[in-house]
Structures are given as C-alpha cells and as structure tokens.
Amino acid sequence: MLAYTIKRLLGAIPTLFILLTLSFILVHAAPGSPFSMAREMPPEVKANLEAKYHLDEPIYEQYGRYLLNIAHFDFGPSYQYKDTTVNDLIAEGFPVSLTIGGFALLLALVLGVPLGMLAAVRQNRITDYLCSAIALGGISMPSFVIAPLLILWAAVYNDWLPAGGVDSWQSYILPVITLAAMFTAYILRIMRASTIEVLRSNFVRTARAKGLSTARVYGVHILPAAILPVVSYLGPAAAAILTGSVVIEEIFGMPGIGRFFVNGALNRDYTLVLGITLFYGLIVIAFNLVVDLIYGWLDPRVTY
Amino acid sequence: MAKSTQQEAMEKAVKGNSLGRDAMRRLAANKAAIASIAVLGLVVLMVIVGPWLTPNNYYSQDYDAIWQAPTLAHGHIFGTDSVGRDLFVRTMVGGRISLMVGIVTAFVSLLIGVAYGATAGFIGGRIDGFMMRTVDILYALPFMFLVILMVVFFGQSLFLMFLAIGAVSWLDMARIVRGQTLTIKQQPYVEAARMAGASGTAIIVRHIVPNLLGLIVVYVTLTIPQVILFESFLSFLGLGVQEPMTSWGALINDGVGEMGRAPWLLVIPSIFLAVTLFCFNFIGDGLRDALDPNDR
Amino acid sequence: MRRLRIISVALLVCIGLVGCGSGEDHKFPNRISPDIGPDGTKTLRKGNGAEPQTLDPAQASGVPAANVLYDMYEGLVTYSRTGDVIPGVAKSWDVSDDGKTYIFHLRHDARWSNGKPVTAQDFVFSLRRAVAPATASPYADIHSPIVNASAITSGKKDPSTLGVTAIDAHTLKIQLHDRTPFFLQTLAHPSSYPVYPPAVKQWGNQFTQPAHAVSDGAYVLKSWQVNNKIVLTRNRYYRDNKDTKIDRVVYSPIGDSNSELSRYQSGALDFTYSAPSSKLEAIHKHIPKQMHAVPGLGLYYFGFNVTRPPFKDNPKLRMALSMALDRRIIVQKILRGGQPPGFSYIPGDMHGYDSVTYPWTNWPDKKREAMARKLYHEAGYSKDHPLKVKLLYPSSESNKQIAIVASAMWRRVLGADVIPWNQEWKVYLSTVHRHIDTTLFFAGWIGDYQDPNTFLSILNSHSGNNEPGWDNAEYDRLQSASEHMPNGPQRTAVMHKAEALILKQNPVVPLWFVTNHHLIKPYVKGFVGNPLDVYLTRYLNIVPAGQKGGGS
C-alpha cells in the first residue's frame, strides 16, 4: 500500500507537468490579453504593462520563467488583481470552496446513501419512486435555479439566513444545500443501482441463509459492497467541489476558488488560471489516489 | 469449471435471439418504463412537428405582446418572452437541439467512457495508470480556453459544439466504470472465463459491461440533463446555438433572470427538461432490469 | 397507474417550487434595517458590481475601483454632491491668461490618515508616478495635456521633466502644452489622486493592502477580502471629518443584479450598484421612492468597420441602417429603464452643451422607414440582393436582446440579413480591434469626465479607441481645435460641427444613453443623482425613520 502510494505520488509529477504545459499553451494562445479593455490603452502604455509582467518576452522564455517560479511554489502575481499574488488568492479562496463542497458532499452522503439503499430494498414500490422523484427533481433543477429560489424563500420572504456574502457560518447554509442537491441525486441513484445488484448476488443470499440478523447483513455485507460505486463517484464529485460550485459562488457572492478561476479566465489572468489549474490538477490526482486506496480497503481483492 | 463456462458461452450464443426477446418481454411488463417511452415519444413528436402546428415562428417579435402570460386567447399557449416571441415554438425548436445534445452525450459517454474505463480497469497496471492520468489531465485542463480556441480557429458551428460536449461527457463515466471493473474482474466468473481462454475484449463485453449496466444507465441518465444545461455555457463562449435559435438550456438560463416577472419562461422549459429526464431514468431502470444478467 | 400518479405529483412539486418565485406581485418584501452599532457607529453597505482590480489610484480602471477610491482619496479638486468639480486639497487656483499654467494653493489642514500633512511634493511624486512607464497606468494618457506627460509615458523623457513643480509645500504649479478647457476635470479623476510617497517607496505594489494603507480622503482602508468585501473606516485626520456622518463603508462586489436586489430586499444592502431590468416594473410599483434613475455619461451604439466593404465609403448604407432602427421601441419596450433614445452622439448632460440631433428625429415612423429603404436601395441593396452581415456583440443577456431586436428591425424595414453573433468579451475586443472581419458591432462608451471631448476624441483617427477605424480629416481638424479652445460659444459651435459630421457620416449609430439605476433605502439621506454617477459617502448620512436630520 505504501509503495503504491509513493509510486502514484511520483507519477503525479509528470502528469502535472504535462497538464501545466498544455494549459500554458492553451491560455496563451487564446485571443485577448490580460490588459485588453473596453477603453483601449495607448500602445506605449500597453507596452509598459507587458514589459512589467514580462509578456513582451518570447513565449518559451515566459514558460521557462514560469516553471522556475513554480519550482519554488510561487504562482506569480495575479494580472487581474494587481495588488495580490496567486498564492494569496488560492489561500483565500480554497478554504471557502472546500467548506461549501465538503459539507455539501457530507450532507449528500448522509442523505443519499441510506435513501438509495431504502429505494433499492423497496424496489418498484412507492418509497422507491418517491426517492427517485426527489433525486431527479434535484438534478433537473440546476443550481442557478435552486439558488435564487432558496434566497427568495430563506432570506427575502423570511429573515432566516443571509442572502449572500460571507459574514458568519450562516452564510454557508444555503450554498451547501444548493450544491448538495446535485450530489444527493447522484449518490442516491448510484447507491440504489448498486444495492440492487448486491442484493441479488450470491453472498448476500448465503449470508441471509446463514440466519444473520438483518442489521448485520446490511451493515457488514451489503453496505461495503454497494458503496463501492459511490466511492468511485467521489473522485469526480470532489473535483466538482471546485468546478461545480462556480455558479453557486457567483449567486451567493462567496469568495471561492471557482469564482476566481472563472473571473481569471474571462480576464485572461494567465497566472491565476494556470495556478488554479495546477492546484486543481493536484487535487484531482490526490482525490483519485484516496479513492483508489479506499477501494482497496473496502474490497481487499482489488489489485491495480 | 472451464467446461461449464464454455458451455455457458455456447448456450448464450444459441439463446442470443430469445434472450433479446426475453428482455423485450420483461421491459414491456414494466409499466413505468412503458409509460415513459410513450411520454418521451410524445415529447419527441411535439418537438418535431410542434413548430408546424402554430402560426407563430421562433424568431418573430411582437413588441405589443411582451411578457404575455400563457393563455389560449392570444394564441400564445406558453406565453411570450421579453421581446414578444412565442414560447411554445421556442420550446419546441429548442428541444430539437437539446434532445440531440442528450443523445450525443449518451452515445459518447456510453461508447468512449465505458470502453475506456473498462479497458483501463481490466488491463490494470501501467496501462491503467497511463490511461487514468490522461483522464486526470483532460479533467483539469482549462476547458474554457479550449472552447474559445476552437471558436477562434474553426468558427462557430453545431458540429464543433457536439465535439466539445463529447470531449467532456465521457470522463466521469470512464472513471466510474474503471473503478467498478477493478472489483468485477476479481469475481469468480471472470476468473473462469479467463481460464477458459476468453479474450480480453470478450470478457469485457460479455462479463464486465453487463454487470455494470445498472450503474452505467444511472450515470448516463444523470449526465444528460447536466450536459443539456452545460450547452448554454458553450453559447456564452460563442460555440453553442446562436440567437434567434435556442435550446432548453438557453431558455432556462434566460428564464432564471426573468423569473420574478415572467415565471413561465423558466417553468415551462424546466418542465420539458424534467419530464424528459424522468422518462430517461425510468426507461433506463426498465432496461437495466430487463437486461440484468443475474436474473437470467 | 400509481407510478404515473407519483410522477405527476413530483412534477407538481417542481412546478410549485419554481412557481413560488412569482408571488412578488402580491408581496414585495423590503426590510428596513440600517446598520447602526450599539455605540452609534453608522455603516453604509453598498453594492459595487465587480471586484476592483487594484486600489492603486494610478493603476485602477473601471467604476467599482473608482467608487472606492473616491471615498479613500482626495485630489487637488474633488466632486461635489452633484458631481461638479470643486476645490479639494487645493483650496484655490490661478490660471494664466493663455490657459497653460495653473498655480494651486493647497489647504494647510489637508492630512494623510497617519496625521502627516498633504504637500505639493506629494502631488509631484504622485503625478510623476502616474505617467511613469514603470507604473504602466492604463489612464496615463488622461494626463497628456501636462507638459512632457506623453513623452515620459513612452519612455522618451525622464519622469522628473513632467510639468508639475512644487513651489513650496503648499503651492503647486502645473504647466500644460496648450489650453485645455477640461483640465480640472481630469484632475478629479482617480488617476490624479495623491498617494503617500513613503508607503509606495516602502511597500511597492503592496501599499494598497489594509496593513499599509495611507490615504488622504474621508475614509481609509480597513480590510479587503477579494470577491467578498472591502471595508473602509473614517479617516479621523480628514479635514472635514466633523461633517462626515457615516463611520464605515462596506463595498460588496455583486455582479448579478438579481442577487444584488435580493440582498437589498433582505436588508443587507443600503445602496445598490444597479437594478435588474426585468424587476423595474415591480420596483416602481412597490418602492418607487427608493428607485433612482439617473441619466449618465454613457452611450451605447452600433459601430461599423468603415475600413472594409460593405461599410467602407458607404454613408448611405450606414444612414439607412441607422434610420431603420426604432429607438423608441428599444428604450420603451426592451430596456424599460427610462433611457433617453440616442438621436445624437453626445449625452445630454454636458455642462451647457446642447447636442445636435438627427434631422429625422421626430419624423413619423412611416416616413422614416421609407427614407431608410430609399437610402438602402440607393446604396445598391434590395430584396433580391440583401445586405448580409454579422452583428457582433459581447456575450450577455441584455446585449443579446439588443442584437436580436435590431436584426429583426433591419429585416423588417430593409429586408437586410443581419445575423447576431456573440463572442466572449476578450475575444470580442480583439476581433473589434483587429478591424479584419468585423463589419458591424455593438459597443458602449462611458465618459471619463464631463466634457463633450470625452466622446468626440475617440473618433479622432489617431485615437486608439476609434473602433470603426473612421478617418475623416475634417473631423480630426474640428475635434483637435475644440480641445484647445476656451469654453464658450465658439468652442460649442466647433463641437456642434463635429457632432453633426458624425451624424451625417454615421461611423457609429447611436442607440441610447446610459441611465444608472440605484436602489437606496429611505434612511440614507443626502443622495443627489449626478451624471458622472459619483457619490462620495461623506455627503451621505444614515438617519432611521423617526429621527431628526438630513444630509450634512
């Protein structure tokens, strides 16, 4: 296990390098510069700005400079938020996104896993359809619809929660609920499907035949087997913490990393976009590693 | 062991035809699935012939009929939008794009995602590592820039839009299928098939994919609405459908901004999207039950 | 059957959830909850559109940054409650007869937020910094009237040669190349504000951070969390501190106007940046007194790429397209925000300048459309040979509406085949600037100061902002002349000629003028709408209902 982890971590370095290189090319090839604005600057001013950020150098030199900085864990200055660095922005935005995403995922697991199992046990009965309807309702109402409705209900018509911004822990409640709606739908449906499979497999029949208690059959035999696909899903889901909450961060006015990324991309803030991409890549790889490790732990037969 | 597997395989080949019929019979017995097929058929029919059934078209504007609530009296049964266009025709026309997006998504994520994930998980080792790191890279790549560059170099077209949608819609599927394949390939029946000398492709097609069916169906049906909504983001980047043409994603997106004034602009396209999604799901569940290998 | 029933129940739930958003006509919640601390600390909470990219006055651009900087800094001159230029750090000034030399007499009681006096040397430092190549200020060109400013920015001269000198600690001399009637206006712009030299020298570009912030305005930066909020507190050394009523200002960047309205209604904002157009009706109905529609200094227009066919050397076609648009429909039915229709090029409120308008402004629709068709045919187009162009616009919902409405009008009146075409903002900018494939584009221009020159100068063939690529020698001559004439009837006459030329040649088609919308709670006193849309918090007060008092 340890050897495997180390191997995977070492493998992450070339992956991130390729990711960074491809992203660098993409970002710099896109039309528009960080300094193009509706009010066009005089050419000499623009030249000064480009010189200030080394954008006047040949692209391979910029790339070399960037790699060198990255090696020192320095993502460089942000072009868009000129008074601050990409490191600071990530350090500021990530905890916010992580809080929203982490709690949303937790809430979704707490709701989705038992409800999914329940739906599977009561397959094609009213409970099953009700659960499915809730899940599908959650997924067919995108967050940009749920969020304004929740705000209207809990903040405008009733004075229960703040309508936006981050002032206290209450500010996180609505964003977490909104994001959890989508996660719950996925987890519930996946859990239902995999429980149905497991319920029909031989070892459950055997366990039942042995006369084990229902609680034990569900807790020890069914749950670990049925939850495996959900664990697979957690990889993409954890990554979606960053991408999936952009809309939510925008509507609730949260200073999360997703909003930084989109604003950075729209403003061609090269360093901010590359910094977040790299950070994101790191998280995707890390989560997938964790998922694989959990997999191995839940199902010891699995080899890679 | 080996013999029995061979026997099973032969039986399967012989029974192939009747198996399909069997599945059909089982599907026909599933009322929710049948009802869903009927409703989905109706939606598809409406989307295709709907625009011809009304005197309105999807682009004509009527500045004296802005934001009219749905009513039979004015001939705008779904109401009108902020420039006085008939929402009924727009919903129908938009459905053509969105259903196509849904079909492409399903197709790509089923074909590429399942094949890729199952292969990686089945082969394992270095190749698995390489294939999954590739997915990681594609996953983390700033997709927005890719789309922008596509528009800049190749211009705006529906083909490119489908290409962009196809490019992202299979990644999650590949990851999940790969994860499940890791477990399934340890199952005794896979071991047996392997020992019987079945080729890797045969094992994936005959043993692994059928056992993943439930999961695949669920995942595809959940991805479709996401991608239908995602399409409106491509429009923002200049790649998706262009006004005055529209799609459900675009209609819902625009509807949100105006929901306080004209809720029907959000509610009606949302209902169409939701109904379609419900149908896909129940059909998916029905198909899964009908094709379940454990029930044979 | 039961299954079907469940599906329909689920659908009803969906509809019900969505539907509850529409109950607004019956009820329009609007909480009145001023932020006054137990110790009487008054906080003004303002929506601020986007996040400022920087709070360095020399590097800032855009309205959100300007709003914060107005509160933090004070220039030689500043804005009054009504947006007029009034004495700031300079209590008075003398102008030489040729209009080229300004002597500013600085107040002795002007203080930085650390108590140090604001001196003439600080202004020398700051203005040199504003034009220096190393600063790379996007607004460096606004200082071009000052001697050597342009040469310094382009690196040809040293910043020390700038025509700004300190005669003594409280007397500042600024020399101009030529008479510039709107020069004082440019001094009120944030890029002319003084920065505290020791802080800049010590902290470099980090001097704007709350820990290092020193400013000379009514407020000083307390905290800044990017994309969440900027908090300013009272500068107790400010010369007019005793008349400043509000103790803290919180700026929240909220891009989506619907989200902003929700926050306003929930009582968490006192002063909004904008108002969503689809809600204007409801706002007018329920809280008309809190709605402020203020005509602004901005124009939205369609530009032609006049360097390429079909619009090159084709004024008839351009006029036909301009005449075919029903601007009244656009402002009344589509925008609905009380915007003035654009029948002229320069916005209405320009200090006594009355705009030239199209001769056909008040023609009946039929006559106008017939004339448009006539010109269209004369330009060589017809039903069988229609004009085919793309109408480029930057992606956004409101822009999309305008594009589809205009293309429908052109189709109806002329039979022209205009296809709306959206691009992401930066892609749009580069497409427009390249002058290669754009033929028709939607754009806007917001004036930097209250003088017609802020609009006229962009169509000069030498201007970097001349997006249509219009090159008209007569216009260049008129515009440059007007830049250096003393204000008066003569200058107005020249500017009238220039504007009339635009309306005759139509390198751009004016559509409508900007109206800024703000929602302001009734307890916020002292607000006066002004065309520059400049509202210094120090002029405002928070007085809950039932308490006596008004604006200072």
TrEMBL record, chain A:
InterPro entries: BPD_transp_1_N, MetI-like, MetI-like_sf. The keyword Transmembrane helix applies. Pfam families: BPD_transp_1 (PF00528), BPD_transp_1_N (PF19300). GO terms for biological process: transmembrane transport. Belongs to the binding-protein-dependent transport system permease family. OppBC subfamily. GO terms for cellular component: plasma membrane. Keywords: Cell membrane, Membrane, Transmembrane, Transmembrane helix, Transport. This is Oligopeptide ABC transporter periplasmic protein. Coiled coil: none annotated. The chain crosses the membrane at residues 98-121, 133-157, 169-188, 272-298. It is found in: Cell membrane. Residues 94-295 form the ABC transmembrane type-1 domain. The keyword Lipid biosynthesis does not apply. It is a multi-pass membrane protein.
From TrEMBL, chain B:
GO terms for biological process: peptide transport; protein transport; transmembrane transport. Keywords: Cell inner membrane, Cell membrane, Membrane, Peptide transport, Protein transport, Transmembrane, Transmembrane helix, Transport. The chain crosses the membrane at residues 32-53, 97-123, 135-153, 159-177, 215-241, 262-283. Residues 95-284 form the ABC transmembrane type-1 domain. GO terms for cellular component: plasma membrane. It is a multi-pass membrane protein. PROSITE patterns: ABC_TM1. It is found in: Cell inner membrane; Cell membrane. InterPro entries: BP-dependent_transpt_permease, MetI-like, MetI-like_sf, OppC_N. CDD domains: TM_PBP2 (cd06261). PANTHER family: OLIGOPEPTIDE TRANSPORT SYSTEM PERMEASE PROTEIN APPC (PTHR43386), OLIGOPEPTIDE TRANSPORT SYSTEM PERMEASE PROTEIN OPPC (PTHR43386:SF2). Belongs to the binding-protein-dependent transport system permease family. OppBC subfamily. This is Oligopeptide transport system permease protein OppC.
Automatic annotation (TrEMBL), chain C:
GO terms for biological process: peptide transport. GO terms for cellular component: ATP-binding cassette (ABC) transporter complex; outer membrane-bounded periplasmic space. Its main location: other. GO terms for molecular function: peptide transmembrane transporter activity. It comes from the Bacteria. The keyword Translocase does not apply. Keywords: Signal, Transport. Residues 35-58 are annotated as: Disordered. It holds the Pfam family SBP_bac_5. InterPro entries: Peptide/Ni-bd, SBP_5, SBP_5_dom. Residues 85-466 form the Solute-binding protein family domain. It is found in: Cell envelope. Belongs to the bacterial solute-binding protein 5 family. This is Family 5 extracellular solute-binding protein. The lineage of its organism: Bacteria, Pseudomonadati, Pseudomonadota, Gammaproteobacteria, Salinisphaerales.
